[in-house]
Design a protein that fits this description.
Length: 158
């Protein structure tokens, strides 16, 4: 996946606001709208831009309870890991899931309407899964920063 200085500038711009028109992005990056559209299409096709999303307030949509959950599996076998990854992907309550190193095997970001709803989720998702050794829940007190922006450095010129 190759990108140049102009692509890096486009990536900086769209990470701040992906609702800008190609004309505005192009103007900010020093391109025509058509050239900007071509580059955006290539960045998406190459997988550099993975998705164009909006960050929604969990509280505003009735899911004010947010947790980070550390999950440990009974054994680290490929089939068990793959099965749990599939469960994560198919669960609407799990907003983000990460396969990690360290004390836990996975870290999940989960939202719920109430603590009772979260308890029901844990029964269904964790306790009924024989592959899970244990999990530890940390309730989010305050979301200090939310986003997906990645620092983008322009590649070095040869």
């Amino acid at each position: 996946m190759q990108y140049d200085r102009t692509d890096a500038r486009i990536l900086e711009i769209v990470q701040k606001n992906n609702r800008l028109t190609s004309e505005i992005i192009g103007e900010l990056a020093g391109l025509s709208a058509t050239a900007c559209q071509r580059r955006l299409k290539r960045l998406r096709c190459d997988g550099i831009i993975e998705a164009d999303v909006s960050i929604v307030s969990a509280k505003a949509v009735g899911r004010p309870i947010q947790m980070l959950v550390l999950v440990s599996l009974e054994r680290e076998r490929a089939d068990i890991i793959d099965r749990f990854k599939k469960a994560i992907k198919s669960s609407a309550e799990v907003v983000n899931g990460f396969y990690v190193t360290g004390d836990a095997d996975f870290v999940l970001y989960i939202t719920a309407r109430t603590m009772e709803d979260y308890e029901q989720f844990t029964r269904r998702f964790f306790y009924e899964n024989p592959d899970i050794k244990g999990f530890k829940t940390m309730v989010v007190m305050d979301r200090v920063k939310a986003g997906f922006a990645i620092p983008v450095e322009a590649p070095q010129e040869d």
